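Q: Entry one of two.
A:
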Amino acid sequence: GIQAGMGGTGSGRKKAGGREAGKRSLPEGVAQGQEGGVQRTKQQKVGGDAAADQEEYVVDYIVSEALRNGKTCFEVKWKGFPAEANTWEPIEHLVGCEEYIDEFREQKKIRDAEFQQELAKKREEKAQRQREAAQAASAEAAARRVAEKEAAAAAAEGNKSAEASPKQRGEPSKKTSPWWQFGNKEGADEDYIHCNVMMDDGKGGFVLCDRKIKCKDGISGLRNHVESVHKREYARVLNEIKAAEASSKTPEKAAQLKLDALPKQSREHLHRLLARWIAKARRPQVLVEDETFVDFVREVSQGSYVPPDRRTLMKHVILLANEGRENLKKVAAKLQEQGIKGSAAIDIWGDDEVSLLGACLYFIDDEWNLREMLLAADPFETERHTGDNIKDRTAQILQEAGLGEAGDVTETLHAITCDNASNMIKGLVQDHVRLGCGAHTVQLSVKIGYKLTDIAATIVKMKGVSKFFRKSTGAMGVGGLHNCQVKLGLPKGKPPRSIDVRWSSQQTQFEWFLKNRDAVRNYHARHGAEAQRASEIYNIGLQMGDQDDRIILQMTAVMKPLQKWTVFIQGSTYPTICSILPSIYSVISGMAPTKPLLIDLGDDEDPYYIAVPDLHPDVRKARIAVYHDLLDRFVENIDPLQKRVWIISTFFHPSLKSFAFLEGCEFITNVSDLKSCALLELRSEWRKWKPKQPEAQLNLSDPGAGGSSAPALSLKSQYKAASGGAGMLGALLGRTSKPSVAGVTTQRDELQEYLDEPEVEDADVDILMWWKVHETKWPHLAKMVKQWLATPASSGGVERVFSAAGVFHGPLQKSAQGDTLEAELFAKFNVD
């Protein structure tokens, strides 16, 4: 018999001709075609035999074959049923139907062979049409050239006085073909042209094609090159040509196209502006592939301008980046010509598989504006971030920017500011004056206070609440919180995230919970069940108690001065190096453990003080720990060269040059002696800048006089020679021995005149504008001031570069490589 059904048996009978009919019978109630067919069942006859009353199904032919649920199945056409009743049956259900299957497969082979033959025929026809079109185009071009030659000969003979052609006048002829946009005549002779299409370099970036193509006989060579190599560009231009032809069928449209058509120069200018906007606004390059954006631009320009594709856009970004590099080299050359050194800030950034060594250059221009330029955003993912690699890469960056000769970049910069990582210190301290980032130094101190038990527990709760409202966005989540905020008259918003590498974000979170304490409590009271469920799912606790509120209030007050100080020294439009010493001394003095804690919430509430005994025990401990760590990092164990830079720079602040701020610092003793030491340090540096005096007027006993026969010393050796190894820094570190001031000259010079000038009372004076006004009065001193005041007190500028890199390397452009990011960053920061 033939077993042809699921759980059923065949009839065992054969059809005429000796071929089994593939019959199938199913017991009553069984759904036939469980592999996707339709149900067909027969009701059992009354009083009849069940097996005899089963319906028989006969295979007509096999329709198709496919793999379904991992099994080979066949679509079966059942005899006596329409095609809609076809079912898919696995091969094990078709025992005895092998002849049907073999017949189907033979027919399939025949159909496949016919299809391949038809496909090959169509391909050959297409190729033949392309060859005929190419031959026709070539013949047309040849005929056109012959006609042009004949016309030129006739014109030369019949009209000698006719106006000369553009070529005779030495001007380029007008090329209206759209294929000319892919050619560049620069660097090629008269008969050749270079392809300017940007190609994939196989590494996620782009490279210029720059193929040399013969163009003496017309555009066909360039067009054929684009067709064979740059298929995407070829298809785009063909579509534009077809669209233009379709639009120009009516006279009105043809006139409009002629009116709106942009010449190549104007189109390239718009491409450049678009690339500049994308870089400046930190937009992803894939924007030019967005159809709605392209339609918008086409509509606004009334069809006269279409944004370029991504490769063309990248070409213009690279051109902008090259312009930014040239601007950097011009600045470096001008600084060297003026005898002024710039300063830099350096840091390392990484995201997924991309890493950059970032550097910013700082200088004061002729108009006394503090300028910040990108010095480098060098791909750094292929090397280990060791001190030696950082040193070598920094030297390479400076050489490429024109700051220093090959093999010698020592002291090409006034100073370099970076964080306190050991690899950065090792890589930069050997060849340069290295300054620690003030913001990073404060962060190291602040983190000590956050580690205490009760404070750490409150921070964990705040992070848990923030995590909950980021994950719960409905009415039972952040929507419910917004309702509570509105009823309390608070602005709607969810808790900010705390980022470990930026301590100020933790302070921002403290301030948010301080203002939204009642809103969070009201939410918990109204949505306690939801909050409890979230606690179980996310392993967080939403219940903020009175102790948490107390800690939040007091820790916000403790860290607020440090937060304001950090924001201030990260500025890049005003000098910060001259204010870092007096400002941090003021902050440290205000954090003294014996002083009451000032609570200033702003808004309409009056400030008040909390006595030391009334502080939370862990807050009191945190305050003491941060205070002593700040003393250690900024007063007692600071690098001598760094302190020297801070001290000399402070003299150039017209309202701080008297060092009166030392009077209120209880941790500083013998203030008058320290001022004398500070003046010695200032004069030792001024010696390199003051104009040389005639030999007859030299005062060899004057430590500030020029003309010494001693050889020039490096910054480090000058510091030691001038201060006897300690000087003013030794006194600040607790060495109170009074230095000798014998031999200090009373001869007046630019520095002395500046020091004798009355101190400006307004501490918020515009320092650079003040020096701009007085530059003509003290030109040599002003030159020294330009170099010293340009030094950054933090690496905040590089952090802003990395923030832009993070946007460029966002979800829409995650495949961008380091070279692409570097080009985008140079276009953003170094091009006006």
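Q: Entry two of two.
A:
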Amino acid sequence: MMMMMMMPPNYENESAFLMKRKQSQGTTTGGFMFASAAKTDDDDDDDDYDEEEEESSSAKENNVFHTEVRTLYDPNNSGVFGFQSSEEFKEKVLETRDVWVVQFIAPGCQPCKDMAPAFSRAALSLESVNIKFGAIDIAGNEDLGRSMQISRVPAIVGFGGKKTWNPYRKIAQKLSNEYRGDALTARALREFAVKNLPDDEVARIDSVDELKNVVSDEMPTLVYVTDKSETPFMLKSLAWNHKNRIRVVELTYDSSTDDLLPTPVLPGLEAHEDEEDAVKLVLYKDADLTKKPTLFDGESMSKDEVFAFAEKHLGPEVGELEVEVLRKKKDDGEDKSGDEKKKGEEEEENNDDFSLFIEKKPKNFEQDVIEKKEAVVVMFTKRTDECGLKVNEAIDAFAKLQFQAELYEYVVNRDGEDILKAIKLAETQTLSKFPNKDECFSLMYYPFGENKEDEESYPFEVSEDHPVNDGNLKAWMYENTADVVLRITQDNLDQYLATDPFTPKCVLFSQKDETPGMYKTLAANFKDDFHFGFFQADDKNDPNLQKFNIPKLPAVQLLFVNPAVTPQQEASGNVQMNSAPFPGPMNYIYLRQWLLEAKNQIKRKDEAKSPGKVTPPPHVTTQKEFEDECESKGGLCAIAFIPGTSSSSQSMFEDRMERAFEAAKLTSGRPFTWIVVDPIVQKTFAKAFDVLPHNSPTVTVLQPRKGRYATMSGSFDPRELARHCELVLNGKTRTFMIQDVPKIIDGGESEDENDYEPEEPIEEEFDLNDIMGEETEDATLGLTRAEIAELERKKEEEELAEAARVKEEEEKKQQQQKSSGKKKKKKGKKGKKKKEDL
């Protein structure tokens, strides 16, 4: 049995993964890089943290927000504006002409803190061109995080200066543009920021004759002569920030011609004799091109000097400009195919939607809802003048439930060809309760599950006594969410820690009688990455709490094995388990972000240990592929039995393939060759290794030449898979013999071909010499003779040590028997003498 030890982490060796926290009662514990955000000694110690009460404390959350933003950015010298609320964000960003770059953060987010200096430098460098930078905490503004579709932090999102007309919702909105680059330097952030400037404000011409069409008496005209293919951002910003006070024109030319003087001569100027003397920047005050223009008088073409030159010659001031709205022209897309038009409409629809609910197309319902693993709330709506207010009020009620489920809207009265599909979909899903003449919307909940077609969906029954509000929605969702949280007691605590030790465990310690609904939802959404437990403490002095260094309730701890542990060390059996306390308030979005950060750091640690040149395991579908990829390579063959997309969703299949790939990386450099086989399509082959649909996915380690195998039982986790391989390699798990390995059926089996009954496995004690005595043909995959000799030497030492121990025990037993005999003999003599005296 594996030995589990609760130990504080070694900070010196894990500084990239763990961070020190303040000492509590003299004990130092480790925590993920998601530092303490809000819990202070003044917090209420009562174990009463239902989301209704936790999230209703606006003062507390605002305090968290203010503290976090001020910690990252000084409002006086950072160049970054800290939004105090989602309303302020909408007012300054979404309803103005300003160009913004906004960082979405969360309390304790270490990557947010790491990138703050670069974000501030980028902000300061672009102040002169009026590109604004801001930061906002999504944990205190859940509705905004959901509407912006923020799924991770830090998220960098740009907003241009114009709105775009949404023909579906009949409203104008600013489009968001999320930064997807890997570099988080000030330069990379600057390059991203300037791309959000409007690019249609600078007139671009390619001949001098065209100047008469753009120069006028209405306002001064700045003309820039260039051979570049892209407009400099300083000109874009100048044209946008001083619109209607100056017109900016680019006159382009081809510098690659054979002309000695390719730069064109501007009207009103004399011809230049040398290319270096060509004038590149001038200003015309009116439409008379015969007059000499005002020449640029700066020393360099820097943005500051160009702006200073232009601002000296601006036209008269104009009133405050309204936000412009871009509308799609009627003739746009005339050359596009029908499919391309539809795709463009869908992309425009999704990009323009800032509602908590994302509007979806009825034709994609199967893909978006039924095949989606995450929980989904669907709202079927009528978008009419009579229903508009009711629908929006219902949507707003979901503000505090963001991220606990995907929120999708299907409009049943939208103009276009989808209206019949939407009505039919709504009738089918609501059992003909919607649409009807009285109701404006209908809500359906589809819980977390791999294939929701086989699962039950749950309607929300609206009535005067049961309105759509935050409390009723939570009760509705929580009651219908499967409870995957294990109830932990003193009796099963040790067993819980020892089960799947390399899968991190998230444990809630509480005095509540039942698992809180919010925690159930969290467990359902992360069950593939963590094991979740609930420990009901008798009181705050429960001795079990001291084992985990828990000073107050409620508390959440993450229990995990150090990711720096190698599979070889894991196979040894002695494992140290670390604990990381959750540092924030008991609110879903904080917990979700904390687990996401933990998941990513564990993954990064595993990737850091893995060699770079490892290819994904091939999907074997023919006998020849099996022979080439497995039998002919020698060594041990790790067969990952993963059901294909015919019996599981695409996302599930890809996730399992990724897990097998991670396991292959962890065992790289060891004598393993990895392949993937579909146990549903290759039933006979899978049965031979005791693999059936109910126990897949799993992995079987096979020695083809000796006909021995060992199939894993446990979670399909990369570290567990790698550990199973190491146990087989080290002779610490039992193997079975197989008389005849069935062949892979090319193209898969039909039902009538599945008549193979595998022989009863012959169980034998594992013989390390037998399974590893044959060197692999590929030296990079097999063990060397020295390695085999070392394994044999260790085994012999273990056998000698065991024999010595048995011999020592026998000698002790004999000595005890002799000693016992002497005492009996002596006692007998004393009794005889006493009898004679009498």
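A: Comment on entry two: The longest helix spans residues 785-837. Residues 254 and 335 are 30 Å apart (CA to CA).
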